[in-house]
């Protein structure tokens, strides 16, 4: 043994630089040959850019990824393949070919997300919904969240909180535009809308205040209005939720070896794990506190309708019981289960919602005719009194505004692609695939192709209102589809309709110039800039 080690050591030390380079080149050549041999003999070859060893097609992914994928799908056709490192992803851009992936029945073969063992490292195995492949706990969590987001009192509470929060938002805008004697305000809405949705979703889910808009105003004006400790914590939590989303991408793409042994990946790995622990502790803590508060609430007193309270009370004597379910689903949720579900609810209600609202405002600012129809609809439904409180029933009548939101999410879906996988071998789009093959439903492409939409480049909200022009099945997927369809879609729609109504009830909106709008892809399609002039409608 000693002899072998000393032989190897003396052999290595005797190597010249040329020997090392030659060895490296031989290994690289062998690896590349093996890589391309398996690439060119793969089953079901589809069009797509040539991948390189180790990096796959990563050399193409620059700038706004969503736009890159859109261009690639246009170039290679409705079925293409892309390599994310060594992983082969099948991208489908045809509504007719994704029927099986979007099967809404409980027997669907595609209820899974393609996730690796990294999910154990995050202590998220079998937790929450979005990344949960354990069907029993996924079903339970989903049913509990779904029930807590349809409570009518939640919507009533939401509508009134949104109205008050909008007043606060307007007060900052007015203060910022003082000295402007023609009363037209120039605002970058992208700056404010995300802060607004954050200030709404945090109390909707946790009953806690957030204070994002106030902090933003303080930063812009060097104002030092007091931010409470609770608000500071909520602001930190929101920042950490975004980091959490980033960490999922990191764990998804970088193998364990790199993350555990190769700097700077090791540093990021620890940073992200620390972040997840922070979030877990924060949510466990507020759940425990809220449980105590609920226990101490005098009998007969009505509890608030936030999602956290509903989740705590569900399947207890204080809440309702899930109907038609066996005992497995008839139990209350644990603190850990509530923690994950509330984190996911906040995630959906912050960035995706903010982006959905910004994109709709952008299209309305760009299309004056559609904006006039929004004004007319609001006046018809609410009358001319701009101070009368808006109710949830009012919102139900606003079909044109709803159509505008749908049409914006068609043109720019916030989540531009959705991934699905099966744990069984199955046939999809006419090809037989092995279990765990990852499929990307490319809704951004499906939403913008002539194969499914008349004049897809035009903003036409009317297409959702005409009986003879209903979207084809699986061609409008801003909230995904099948059994994993977004459980927060009604909440998102109510939020969006309310904000659009609040702003257009009082204002006319115009883009400042041709460069007023900018979007980018960062975990989702987001709005970076939306500069508009707002002028009061009462001056019409
Ligand atoms: C405009 C706003 C929103 C958009 C565009 C959006 C979009 C989506 C999409 C595309 C999916 C994937 C569905 C699929 O796999 O087929 C999803 C899943 C999900 N969304 Fe949303 N969402 C929004 C708002 C919300 C809100 C407000 C909540 C919270 C109440 C929420 C909670 C979730 C959850 C928990 C999942 C995972 C569902 C599962 O895997 O079973 N979303 N969302």
Could you explain the architecture of this structure?
The protein has helices at 2-14, 17-40, 65-76, 118-121, 135-148, 152-176, 189-206, 212-221, 229-253, 256-261, 265-295, 307-313, 335-349, 351-366, 368-382, 392-396, 399-411, 443-447, 489-506, and strands spanning 79-84, 87-92, 185-188, 418-420, 426-428, 431-433, 438-441, 507-511, 517-521, 525-536. With 540 residues, the protein is an alpha+beta fold. The protein has a single domain, classed as Orthogonal Bundle (Cytochrome p450), CATH 1.10.630.10. The strands form 3 sheets. The chain has a 4-stranded mixed β-sheet. Strands 3, 8, 9 and 10 form a 4-stranded antiparallel β-sheet that branches. Strands 5-6 form a two-stranded antiparallel sheet. A hairpin with a 2-residue loop joins strand 1 and strand 2 (87-92). Helix 6 (152-176) packs antiparallel against helix 7. The longest helix is centred in the middle third of the chain and has 31 residues, at 265-295. The radius of gyration is 26 Å and the shape is globular. The termini are far apart. Bound molecules: protoporphyrin IX containing FE.
Strand content: 5-15%
- What class, by secondary structure content? alpha+beta
Number of domains: 1
CATH domain class name: Mainly Alpha
Supply the number of helical segments: 19
**Mean pLDDT across every amino acid position:** 92
* Rg result: 26 Å
CATH superfamily: Cytochrome P450
Count of distinct strands? 10
Tell me the strand order in the biggest sheet. Answer: 1-2-7-4
Residue stretches low in confidence (pLDDT < 50, at least 5 long) are none
Biggest sheet features: 4 strands, mixed
Measured distance between first and last alpha carbons: 93 Å
What's the order of the H and E elements? HHHEEHHHEHHHHHHHHHHHEEEEHHEEE
Instruction: Examine the secondary-structure arrangement and name the CATH architecture.
Output: Orthogonal Bundle
Q: Judging from the principal axes of the Cα atoms, what is the shape? A: globular
